[in-house]
TrEMBL record, chains A, B:
Pfam families attached to this UniProt entry: TetR_N (PF00440)
SUPFAM superfamilies, per database record: Homeodomain-like
Protein name (database record): Transcriptional regulator
Single GO MF annotation: DNA binding
Keyword DNA-binding: yes
Keywords, in A-Z order: DNA-binding
Species of provenance: Kitasatospora phosalacinea
Listed Pro residues bias regions: 1-18
Residue stretches making up the HTH tetR-type domain: 29-89
DNA-binding annotation, residue ranges on this chain: 52-71
PANTHER family for this protein: HTH-TYPE TRANSCRIPTIONAL REPRESSOR FABR (PTHR47752)
Region (Disordered): 1-25
Length: 222, 222
DNA sequence: GAGTTCGGTGAACGAGTGTTCGCTGAATGC
DNA sequence: GCATTCAGCGAACACTCGTTCACCGAACTC
């Protein structure tokens, strides 16, 4: 309890989606959340493969044995964290594209949304950065799958965008992967930068995205 | 010894640079290499923060205490591995740009060189992927510093490239970072892909780099 | 109200850990 | 030849670790 710097401000405070009836269930969910939050906090300065069951239960205020009532593995817990980490991103990207279709505006808003997300959920993003190529295969695969879904979603959105509507599906997918990759890299760079570096990173990525957009406008003409 | 899948084909076989006179020195260097190679092998399936001193010395055929004759920390060993990992890349990028200046050709050759490098030194690249955002700060910083040097080098090369010679230094740096990031991501994707996926990844990245190049050709015109 | 379910506990298991210590013996400097 | 250096060793210290076990007691079912 003394080792946790952050009181784990339950990042998804909504108790609505699956409160499930029963005091029993609620208490179990609370313990589960405590484990997840404790792990997330510890993972800010550590790898998943360096994390220990005892360490997590200690931070969560459970006994070591209690862990196994919720997860078989730390890897299993890790996969859940991956899903939580990226769940919000999907609704965010849709929100960005919901407005106007001006590419320049889209770019600015995308960067703003990413910066805000990084500022709000740094722990989740740090975790993703660490485990995207980390030592636990199942977690790595979960991240890859989630990012692929993300690229797919963006490719679908590009299909209704004037500049890219006429492209082949493969080319749209290629462009979507380019954008996703740039944004992921940006998020990861932002998360371990201090305040002044962040402004520079945001400026750079805006320019880079504009350059990519410029390239895609001249694509078919080549 | 039984747990090492790879007999660690000393990636830098040159005994010339610093053989230093003396049997003593040579034996010490051999042990040091054994430690580095053993660690690199173990890190193919593990994080640096999950690695143990005893584990490394066991794989290297030393006693645990022997480790401390060479490194104070596993982190220190990790930093050395980072430097070795990226040392070759610098000479490679110069080799690519030494030839003709045709952008399309440069792109094709860059992708080829990366693919070849990944095929030849997968362990080093896997290690870089893991530790670029891993749990050990000193190693993370070493990777970041090395990649920054890399971007700087590329920016210098862009200064003598016809399309970008007239750009501002900041814009060239921006473009260099975009290229470096794309290539790093590609290398990391290649390293955990199987043979058929690799062809697809190479094709995609070629297209993406062409699109970026197209954008940079129209940049000043915007 | 009686009986069942089940999340959480504390103790215990064997195994593995980082690091330090004094020692050895071959390579060195003279 | 002799004294010195020092890479490597085995043993030991004092941990931490993952996982299992029987058990408790509050929440549930009926």
């Amino acid at each position: 309890m003394t080792s946790r710097p952050d009181p784990a401000p339950a990042p998804d405070p909504a108790p609505a989606p699956a409160p499930a009836a029963g005091v029993r269930q609620a208490q179990k969910q609370a313990s589960r959340r405590a484990l997840l939050d404790a792990a997330l906090g510890l993972l800010e300065q550590q790898n998943l493969s360096g994390l220990g069951v005892r360490e997590v239960t200690r931070a969560a205020g459970l006994s070591p044995a209690g862990f196994y009532r919720h997860f078989a593995d730390l890897a299993e817990l890790g996969v859940v964290l991956v899903e939580e980490s990226l769940a919000n991103l999907h609704v965010m990207v849709r929100a960005v594209f919901a407005g106007s279709g001006e590419p320049e505006l889209l770019i600015d808003r995308s960067v703003e949304v990413i910066a805000a997300h990084v500022a709000e959920h740094p722990a989740y993003l740090r975790f993703l950065a660490r485990e995207r190529h980390g030592g636990v295969k199942s977690v790595r695969d979960a991240v890859a799958a989630e990012l692929a879904r993300f690229a797919e979603e963006l490719a679908d959105l590009l299909a209704v965008q004037p500049d890219t509507a006429a492209w082949s599906a493969a080319d749209r997918r290629m462009l979507a992967e380019l954008y996703v990759d740039r944004m992921v890299s940006t998020a990861l760079a932002l998360v371990e930068a201090d305040a002044e570096e962040r402004a520079a990173i945001a400026r750079t990525v805006r320019t880079q995205l504009r350059l990519i957009n410029l390239g895609s406008r001249h694509w078919q003409a080549s």
